[in-house]
Design brief:
Helix content is about 45%, strand content about 15%. It has an 8-stranded mixed sheet with strand order 3-2-1-4-5-6-7-8, with helices on both faces. It binds nicotinamide-adenine-dinucleotide (NAD). Nicotinamide-adenine-dinucleotide binds next to helix 1 and strand 6.
Length: about 280
């Protein structure tokens, strides 16, 4: 199926980024958030982001206007009915996502694909919540979605070849490079990345070095664009903890057992950039 109209559910870091990518690459986009106000906020943020691109000479004013004209914002799931593809990108919580898949299945036309942007949760558990398990898969964008080139297309046992092909083609149409991955917690990237991030928190906790020095060491020593603690702040510590918990639940590998400091920071509401503080203080920056 060719994908022209895309629904994005969830107005957080990733929902906003995915909506921007899809709209910029010529797709009609319906943004759905639980409150109309937050859905409208997403459009306002998109307007600002596109205005910056025009100011910097990276986009023509006419393209900005055409992109914005393709985007609508709603709080009603029923407005997703005509979408060819709906991408769920809400909080990394299996029971919340299951309820949402159930609701989406009843609202969206039967031939539509429903995909999840989950980082780690079992995609098949969402597929079986619907009456169309063959039309459910993962489409895992990376943060920030407009800048990162990879999309992991996750194939649960139930997905049809046609679904996977359509979603691969959509990722390519978004200017991304798709890789196909089996439905295993963490897929490729997070399964390899998170033991490293978790061990960086362990180093900080046991006093090996300061946060700034751990990050500077990995940037300077491995040529990484950012250090592990700055990356955790970018991802969001609550999302990172949910990812580690899902990896540990699946594999029981101690490398995936979240370091206590990470869990305590989440309890304290120190979630990284989105809350203004994490391993670094963003309010003062
Ligand atoms: N942050 C990352 O780097 C990253 C990267 C790739 C994928 N993801 C995945 O994307 C998804 C969203 O993550 P995010 O970083 O955008 O999170 P976020 O915290 O920025 O946003 C979460 C969104 O979920 C909504 N939400 C919370 N509880 C809800 C509920 N009960 N019902 C419906 N909506 C609810 C919130 O209103 C918010 O819009 C997660 O599955 C996450 O694993 C995150």
């Amino acid at each position: 199926m060719s994908i022209a109209r895309v629904g994005v559910v969830g107005s957080g870091i990733m929902g906003s980024g995915i909506a921007e990518v899809a709209a910029k690459t010529g797709h009609e986009v319906v943004l759905r958030s639980r409150k109309q106000e937050t859905a409208d906020d997403m459009v306002n943020r998109l307007e600002k982001s596109l205005a910056r691109a025009v100011d910097k000479g990276r986009m023509e004013a006419a393209d900005r206007d055409a992109t914005l004209a393709r985007v609508s914002a709603t709080s009603s799931i029923a407005d997703l009915a005509d979408c060819d593809l709906v991408i769920e990108s809400v909080v990394e919580d299996l029971s919340v996502k299951k309820d949402l898949f159930n609701e989406l299945d009843r609202a969206v036309k039967p031939e539509a694909i429903i995909a999840t942007n989950t980082s780690t949760l079992p995609v098949v558990d969402l597929a079986v919540e619907t009456s169309r398990p063959d039309k459910v898969c993962g489409v895992h964008f990376f943060n920030p979605a407009p800048a990162m080139s990879l999309v992991e297309v996750v194939r649960p046992l139930t997905a049809s070849d046609a679904t996977i092909e359509s979603v691969r083609a959509f990722a390519t149409a978004c200017g991304k490079t798709p890789v196909e991955v089996k439905d295993r917690a963490g897929f490729v990237v997070n399964a390899l990345l998170f033991p490293y991030l978790n061990n960086a928190v362990r180093m900080l906790e046991n006093g090996t070095a300061s946060a700034g020095d751990i990050d500077a060491a990995m940037q300077g020593g491995c040529n990484f664009p950012m250090g592990p603690l700055a990356l955790l702040d970018l991802v969001g510590l609550d999302t990172s903890l949910a990812i580690l918990d899902a990896l540990y639940a699946e594999f029981r590998d101690p490398n995936y057992a979240a370091v206590p400091l990470l869990r305590r920071m989440v309890s304290a509401g120190q979630l990284g950039r989105k809350s203004g503080s994490g391993f670094y203080d963003y309010a003062k920056r």
